[in-house]
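Need residues for this backbone.
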C-alpha cells in the first residue's frame, strides 16, 4: 500500500497532488492550441442532437452534483443552452418532465451510484438522449448511456473525491466550448482564448500546490473550530459547496457552503469571532460584490480565510489569511480555487486524527439507495 501511495501519507494527498497530471490526461488528445482544435470522440455520434438540445439536464450525487452545478454555469454561459441540475435521487422520484429533445447527462466518478443509474434508466425510457461523464471505464453508467466522455483521471481511492471532480469539470469545460463553437455563440477569438486557458491549468495548479505550508498554518489555527462557512459567487458558489463538503466528509466539522449574497438571508446570524469564513474572492465580474461580502463578515468579527487572485491587495487588507491563485479566466476558476480547499480539509482532518482516506459512515461508491 505504501508503494501505491507513491510516498504520500494518504491517497487523498496523492490524488490532490496528481491533479496537474490528471487534468492534463483529461484533455490530452481532445483539445489543442496548436492548431486550435477541440474534439470529444465519445460524443461524435450524438453531436448534432446535443448541439440542438432544447435543454440539458445534468444529474449526479455528492461531489459529482457540484461538478454539475459548475457545468450549468459553463454551458449556459458559453453555449446558451438552458441547463438544469438535479440530484439523481430527487429526479428519479419526483415525476420529472423529460422531453424527447432533452439531453440528460449523468456525472459519476464510479459509474455505479444507484440513484444516478436509476435516473438515467428513467430518462432513457422517456426517450431522452442520455450521456455519461464517468471515470471508471466499463462501469454501469457508461454501459447504459447512449454515449459519453470518460474523465481519465485514473483510479481514485480516497473516499473524498478530489481529482475526479477536477476531471469532471474539465470535461464540462470542453463540452461547453465545443457546443459554443458549434452553436456559434463564441467568437473565434473567444474560442481560442478559452482553449488556451484550459491548457494553462496544470502549471497553475502546480503553483497553487506550493501554498501547502500556508494552508497547514491556517489548518492549525482552525482545526478545533466547530463550524465553517464557505462563500462564493458565480462559478465559485459550487466551489464553496465543494469546499464545505470536503471538510464535513473527512474532518467531521460542520460546514456550510453558500452563495455569498445569500449569506444575509440566514447564515450571517451565525457569524461571530469564532466563526471561520472561507471566501473565494477572485478578481472577476463579481469582485466588487464579494469585497462587500467580506466587509459584512468582518463587521461581525468573523474570521476570514480568503482565496484571492495573485497580487490582490484590497481583500488582503481585510482578510485574516489569504491564499493566492494565479490569474486565470473565469471558466477555469473552479479548477484552481478548489485546490486550496481540498488541502485545507485534508490538513484539518489529519490534525484532528481522522481517517482521511476512509471517513466514518461514508462509502466511495453508493450502490444502494
Ligand atoms: C459518494 C462518495 C462521494 C461521491 C458520491 C457520488 O458519496 O463518497 O465522493 O461524490 O458518492 O459518487 P459518483 O461515483 O457517482 O461520482
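Answer:
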Amino acid at each position: 500500500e505504501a508503494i501505491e501511495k507513491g510516498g504520500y501519507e494518504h491517497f487523498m494527498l496523492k490524488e490532490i497532488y496528481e491533479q496537474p497530471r490528471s487534468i492534463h490526461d483529461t484533455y490530452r488528445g481532445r483539445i489543442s492550441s496548436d492548431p486550435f482544435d477541440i474534439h470529444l470522440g465519445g460524443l461524435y455520434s450524438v453531436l448534432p442532437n446535443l448541439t440542438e438540445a432544447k435543454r440539458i439536464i445534468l444529474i449526479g450525487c455528492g461531489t459529482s452534483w457540484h461538478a454539475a452545478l459548475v457545468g450549468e454555469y459553463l454551458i449556459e454561459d458559453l453555449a446558451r443552452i438552458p441547463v438544469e441540475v438535479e440530484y439523481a435521487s430527487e429526479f428519479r422520484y419526483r415525476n420529472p418532465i423529460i422531453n424527447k429533445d432533452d439531453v440528460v447527462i449523468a456525472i459519476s466518478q464510479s459509474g455505479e451510484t444507484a440513484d444516478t443509474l436509476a435516473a438515467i434508466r428513467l430518462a432513457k425510457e422517456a426517450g431522452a438522449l442520455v450521456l455519461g461523464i464517468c471515470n471508471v471505464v466499463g462501469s454501469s453508467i457508461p454501459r447504459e448511456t447512449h454515449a459519453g466522455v470518460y474523465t481519465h483521471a485514473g483510479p481514485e481511492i480516497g473516499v473524498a473525491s478530489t481529482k475526479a471532480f477536477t476531471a469532471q469539470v474539465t470535461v464540462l469545460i470542453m463540452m461547453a466550448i465545443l457546443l459554443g463553437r458549434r452553436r456559434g455563440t463564441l467568437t473565434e477569438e473567444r474560442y481560442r482564448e478559452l482553449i488556451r486557458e484550459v491548457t494553462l491549468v496544470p502549471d497553475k495548479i502546480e503553483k497553487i500546490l506550493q501554498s501547502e505550508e500556508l494552508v497547514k498554518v491556517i489548518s492549525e489555527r482552525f482545526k478545533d473550530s466547530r463550524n465553517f462557512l464557505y462563500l462564493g459567487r458565480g462559478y465559485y458558489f459550487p466551489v464553496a459547496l465543494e469546499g464545505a463538503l470536503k471538510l464535513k466528509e473527512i474532518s467531521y466539522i460542520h460546514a456550510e457552503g453558500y452563495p455569498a449574497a445569500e449569506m444575509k438571508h440566514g447564515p450571517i446570524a451565525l457569524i461571530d469571532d469564532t466563526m471561520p469564513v472561507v471566501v473565494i474572492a477572485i478578481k472577476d465580474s463579481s469582485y466588487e460584490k464579494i469585497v462587500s461580502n467580506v466587509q459584512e463578515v468582518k463587521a461581525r468579527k468573523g474570521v476570514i480565510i480568503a482565496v484571492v487572485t495573485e497580487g490582490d491587495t484590497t481583500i488582503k487588507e481585510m482578510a485574516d489569511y489569504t491564499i493566492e491563485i494565479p490569474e486565470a479566466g473565469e471558466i477555469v476558476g473552479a479548477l484552481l480555487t478548489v485546490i486550496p480547499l481540498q488541502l485545507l480539509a485534508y490538513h484539518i482532518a489529519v490534525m484532528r486524527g481522522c481517517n482521511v482516506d476512509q471517513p466514518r459512515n461514508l462509502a466511495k461508491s453508493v450502490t444502494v439507495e
